[in-house]
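Sample intake sheet
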Amino acid sequence: MRIENKTLVLVADGAKMLLFRNTGDAEYPQLEVETALEQPHDKTGDIATDSPGRAASSTGGGNSSMEQPDYHQQAEDRFAADTALMLKTRALANDYESLIIVAPPRTLGELRKHYHGEVSKRLSGEIAKDLVNHSVDKIEGIIAAA
């Protein structure tokens, strides 16, 4: 995948976001970090100390336990929604013409739920991989090979 000059490249997962701009050209990309944001999330077991609730069965068969919410996943989903909002804000401000998004499949799916039309118009490509902890050189190489 070619990374044209001035393309915005988002590399994210459920808790970390790296936003790059290609200051090189399509032949020799050079990703420069514009924004780096990390939002640590507690594990569900650390947040929810109570045991799951119980509900009375409507069929008279006694009580059944209710599933405990996955607070960690909820926090990751909120982070993805906030990241999509940031992309929308920047798109509406005409901050970028082209966008490449790299994220694990689950995060990528959550981001897609929140794409604004202007973000979708500018989207040049998506890669379903977790690269937030890779070096910039490796990220450039993986995108170029995609």
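Comment: Helices lie at 44-47, 71-92, 105-113, 117-122, 136-145. The first helix runs from residue 44 to 47.
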